Amino acid sequence: xxxxxxxxxxxxxxxxxxxxxxxxxxxxxxxxxxxxxxxxxxxxxxxxxxxxxxxxxxxxxxxxxxxxxxxxxxxxxxxxxxxxxxxxxxxxxxxxxxxxxxxxxxxxxxxxxxxxxxxxxxxxxxxxxxxxxxxxxxxxxxxxxxxxxxxxxxxxxxxxxxxxxxxxxxxxxxxxxxxxxxxxxxxxxxxxxxxxxxxxxxxxxxxxxxxxxxxxxxxxxxxxxxxxxxxxxxxxxxxxxxxxxxxxxxxxxxxxxxxxxxxxxxxxxxxxxxxxxxxxxxxxxxxxxxxxxxxxxxxxxxxxxxxxxxxxxxxxxxxxxxxxxxxxxxxxxxxxxxxxxxxxxxxxxxxxxxxxxxxxxxxxxxxxxxxxxxxxxxxxxxxxxxxxxxxxxxxxxxxxxxxxxxxxxxxxxxxxxxxxxxxxxxxxxxxxxxxxxxxxxxxxxxxxxxxxxxxxxxxxxxxxxxxxxxxxxxxxxxxxxxxxxxxxxxxxxxxx
Length: 496
Known about the structure:
This protein is mainly alpha-helical. The chain has helices spanning 2-12, 15-33, 39-46, 55-80, 89-100, 104-138, 142-153, 164-178, 202-210, 212-221, 239-242, 246-260, 266-281, 293-309, 311-317, 323-334, 343-346, 348-377, 384-403, 406-424, 430-452, 464-493; strands at residues 181-182, 188-189.
């Protein structure tokens, strides 16, 4: 085995392969930082260029694009509150307030450190735990999926701000909007136009809720926000700041690995799950959403930890972990490689080369992030009056470019207005987005579970995994109720 590893290392460690991975990482970071330009788009557009490449370099290029775009989404989320990817939405909750406080450099550094650690640990898990985790993923059925997503939905309580009621209203609106389109049995809901029969895409909803309201504030109130982020200042994350974050960083990486290994969940749900867990377990949980480095670390470690883990079911079972690995499955087949158990017998040399290349890509990700960070932070020095039109154009172009659909642009503008109205009414937007992303997974797995049990609701508590998540849900609800009661009592105890 050692001889095979050394041979694979020698085959990977060439200037050509380094240049391919570096180009993929850099291109992914830039594309991920552009609103609407998703990692799926980057990997899909690069696929034709891999037809005439050797098998392993072609896969490494796609993996590098995936990793770079996942990290790149955090850049725009932190600097201009416009998540480049859906998985970076949680990063914007604390990253943008940190940038407004003049700590954009610290937030970007923390996002980079967390991304690299999560990515590295997911690669280690891929190498040593591919088969066991893949077998575990096979035991997770619709009831387990449903309870898992329901538990992830409890994150809403933590991002509701000062009013839990407004947070629940926001989440209900998100769940309602998530039902638009065709359901699993072919029925249409809220299909007022032919375009709505396919439902609403995440990208226009995400950018409409987070980015456009900031532009509308500038237009309506004509008072530009204080450009505190221009004062980049000391971007170094000190040991004192890093020490309390390590626990959430490692936990987020673990959550990303586990959830990423389960087909169909992906980095977005992992980020929300990790963010909620970090908030509940942190002594600074009340500061989450106001500018907390731990929130950035929890989100970025989880979504990057899920990247490598999505390759686990792909390589071990031939089952794509998410949309991007579905594209990669096509790349494997084009190169004459068939993912699955036989891959480790017939193409073990290529597998070792892929593992080594993925480990090296983590190092390249750190280097690319460090080199481009100073250039990215100059964005925050641009006056808001000049930056806003550019952001609007990028949002419009990015959303249109995904599907060449004017309907998506209309959805973007409509959700921008909705987001602005929610701001005026003090309704938080984060619960809306969490519910919108998790809603389809919750509904689909609930209906699948009930279909397999002929309508018996007890199927939702039919395994130890479902019992564990049910207990966790009750525990979180109890903690939330206790917190709200204590808050109400403290409010009454204060002198009028």
